[in-house]
Amino acid sequence: MLRWSVIFLVIALIAALFGFTGIAAGAASIAKILFFIFLVLFALALIGGILLVKKK
Q1: How many degrees, rounded to 5, is the angle at CA 35 between CA 31 and CA 37?
Q2: 14/10 Cα distance (integer angstroms)
Q3: pLDDT given at position 39
Q4: Are 41 and 11 in contact (CB under 8 A)?
Q5: Which of 5, 21, 50, 55 has the maximal Cβ count within 10 Å?
Q6: Could you give the CA distance from residue 4 to residue 17 in angstroms, rounded to a whole number?
């Protein structure tokens, strides 16, 4: 998922470079949403792993 976030970020940067502001804004917002989803999933996996290790 982090890879998709970086891909959309690159698309946004290229679109902004060529002046396609609407596409750049859309790609940047998608990249931001995917990045925050990745962070939430990472935090949940980290907490779950810590709790699993403490149980043993």
Answers
A1: 120
A2: 6
A3: 93
A4: no
A5: 5
A6: 20
Residue identified by tokens 């970020």 is 9
Q: What is the pLDDT along the chain (56 residues), one digit of tens a residue?
A: 678 888 888 999 999 888 888 888 999 999 899 899 999 999 999 999 999 888 76
Structural domain boundaries, residue 17: 2-55
Could you give the 3-state DSSP secondary structure of residue 20? coil
Number of structural domains (the chain) is 1
DSSP-derived secondary structure letter, 19: T
Question: Taking every pair of C-alpha atoms in the chain, what is the biggest distance, in angstroms?
Answer: 56
